[in-house]
Amino acid sequence: MPDPLVSWSIASGAALVVAAACAGAAMAVRGSTAVPAAVWGVLAAVAFAVETGCRAAGGLADPAAGAAARLAVTALAVCPAMALLGAKRPQHGAWQFIVAALAVVIALPAVSAALVRPGTMPDVGLLWRAFLLVLVAVGWMNFVATRQGVAASLVACGQLLVIRAFLPFAEAAPAAGSGPDASAAAVDAVAACLIAAGAVVAAVRAATARGLAAGVDAGIERPFLALRETLGAAWALRIAERFNAVAVERGWPCRLRFAGLEPAGADGPWRADAERAFRALARRFASADWLRRHSGGRNADGPHE
To answer: Which of 1, 112, 185, 210 reaches 20 to 30 Å from 67, CA-CA?
Structure first.
């Protein structure tokens, strides 16, 4: 078993890689409502880096203090997935207060243990443990069917390892890297490396997406697929549902599916109206500048610049 100092140093370094990747993602998705989720990712990664760095430096040796610190990291770790659930204008800004409140409520047992019962382990109820598992699952399911499926799977596996002590039926003992436990430190290192690998895969996928979309219809399909990869399946399916309702109402010979516009390459006098309708829906999630960047320079208010 590797030295705990080495394992936690690896975990801290990998977490900093994740923080840098999330910061880069925040820049890459600027103009969309996915920016807050990327910012939450930065905060969660930095918190994990600080926690594991403290362990590597010999801090948090007390099991109760270590469990409290890990619960705080856990509270931040589920925030990015929660932030995406409210990624719709105009409420996406106010939604972040709800996300922050959720993080505070999740971390509350750690505060309570420190102030009311010093030296005791945080008491996280079974309902909250199940809710943490659901949030990780929601984040994974939102992207598993997209081109980011591999990255989402790596991140979800890493998250489950990070928050393992607070999952349903987990032992109440300090299983989250509390104390000088070599096996726990090794698991933390594996968890951080899995999340870092997922972040790198996501960045590579995003960098190659524009080239793969070169032959895709720029008016509707290209920005739609970009939104799908940015916000996940939940909002992409909602946009498609609303677009198809308008298409049926106005008699357009096309439908927007999860994989893109059907039939591909469809054209006609209805086309300009369809593009305007799609962009009206997309503006709930992205700015006009974002839409121009992902639709070949087309104007966000019409089919032409």
So the answer is: 1
pTM: 0.89
pLDDT digits (tens, 9 = 90+) for 16-71: 999 999 999 999 999 999 999 999 999 999 999 999 999 888 877 788 888 999 99
Helices (H), 116-148: 126-143
**Conformation bin of residue 225: beta by default, left when phi > 0, alpha when psi is -120 to 50:** alpha
Bridging pattern class, strands 260-262 and 255-257 = antiparallel
Residue 214 DSSP SS3:
coil
d(CA 166, CA 71): 8
Continuous segment of H or E residues that includes residue 260: strand 260-262
Q: Are 33 and 92 in contact (CB under 8 A)?
A: yes
Which residues does 204 contact at the CB level (< 8 Å), separation at least 6? none
Which amino acid type is present at position 292?
R
Partners of 256 in the β-ladder: 261
